[in-house]
Specification:
Strand content: 25-35%
Structural class: alpha+beta
Number of domains: 4
Number of strands: 18
Distance between the termini: 22 Å
Order of helices and strands: HEEEEEHEEEHEHEHEEEHEHEEHHHEHEH
Helix content: 25-40%
Strand order of the largest sheet: 3-2-1-9-10
CATH topology of the largest domain: Nucleotidyltransferase, domain 5
Length: about 350
């Protein structure tokens, strides 16, 4: 009874709990929060952690804190690496949506990677419940991405989506409102950033952080050779001399740096295509492959994949928000999507 009463005063939410960003949608309103999945905590003299900042403010502190302050990314490789901090982050954003009121108990749909174990699924659900959720439903990322990309998920024909997020790449074949075959690959944006860090270290003897690597990926990253080479100046520390210096990095460097993780994604896509039932494979040959997620914005990635698999590859209209929008559509008509957004 108390849950029902609280529910009257609560806004139902859809949450894309991403490794890089957390997006929160309110039923009937759309996206109201889009912030980095980062929490900054201060450790007191008794060893207790106290939240200093969450989201954008916390991300600014990464790599710039002293020993008593930690900027933590509680999601790693698409799974919860720190359950307590994740719970605090979810609670913070639920409170933010409800204007810090205490009398709330929303229904929540949370998007999770396909490869999450039952133990991990339970942990996600309990984190949201402990943060104040009345009911928690989970929807798998390839399905949410397909819904958000406006693919015909209800129809008796195959659609193939590749969602390249921060921690995982999700590949799924969807037909008749279900995932026919899917895989979750822990090679995505974060791993690409790590490869860039290693490349810059080895070629230029320059030490940079993940934030600079991400900027390189966004500004000059490419999966193919470009007609006009892009260049960017970055700053870091010389690992030999220990001094600070600036260097110029080109898009050709980025293509080499990103080659291995992109090949891993390609091989996973090929494997899914090999395992797809023949009738659905025919639909995919006709309709092609749709890319979503931040990784879909890497220059030339659609052409790189298309040339390799000999099929059309398209970037979704709004790749960065496809998963969140798909989760939100499931929330907008919860009765229709009960079979997709299930409670563990």
């Amino acid at each position: 009874m108390l849950k029902r009463i609280k529910g009257i005063f609560s806004s139902d939410l859809a949450i894309d709990l991403g490794t890089a960003n957390i997006l929160v949608l309110v039923k009937g309103e759309g996206i109201v929060i889009n912030e980095p999945s980062v929490v900054a905590v201060q450790i007191d003299k008794f060893g207790q952690e106290h939240v200093l900042a969450v989201g954008s403010e916390a991300k600014k502190m990464i790599g710039k804190t002293h020993r008593n302050i930690k900027a933590i990314r509680p999601m790693r490789d698409g799974v919860i690496a720190d359950f307590h901090i994740t719970e605090l982050m979810i609670k913070h954003f639920i409170q933010k949506v409800h204007k810090r009121k205490k009398f709330y108990s929303p229904r929540i749909i949370i998007c999770v990677p396909y490869g999450l174990t039952q133990v991990e699924r339970k942990a996600v659900r309990e984190s949201a419940q402990n943060a104040g959720a009345r009911y928690v439903y989970l929807i798998e990322e390839p399905m949410a991405a397909a819904i958000g990309a406006d693919l015909p998920v209800h129809d008796p024909r195959g659609s193939l989506v590749v969602d390249i997020g921060g921690g995982t790449t999700e590949i799924g074949v969807i037909s008749l409102s279900g995932l026919v075959i899917s895989t979750s690959l822990r090679t995505a944006g974060d791993k690409i950033d790590g490869q860039i860090v290693d490349y810059i270290n080895k070629k230029f003897n320059l030490l940079i952080g993940d934030r600079v690597a991400e900027e390189l990926k966004i500004n000059i990253g490419t999966a193919i050779d470009l007609k006009e080479e892009l260049k960017m100046i970055i700053k870091g520390r010389d690992k030999v001399e220990g001094s600070l210096k600036s260097i110029e990095v080109s898009s050709k460097d980025m293509k080499i740096a990103m080659q291995d993780p992109l090949e891993e994604i390609l091989e996973a896509l090929k494997l899914i295509l090999e395992q797809t039932p023949p009738d659905l494979a025919g639909d995919i040959v006709e309709n092609g492959v749709v890319l979503t997620g931040g990784g879909a914005l890497i220059r030339g990635l659609d052409k790189y994949l298309s040339d390799a698999i000999k099929l059309p590859v398209y970037v979704a209209e709004n790749p960065l928000l496809a998963v969140a929008l798909g989760t939100g559509k499931a929330l907008d008509d919860i009765d229709m999507w009960q079979q997709l957004a299930y409670e563990d």
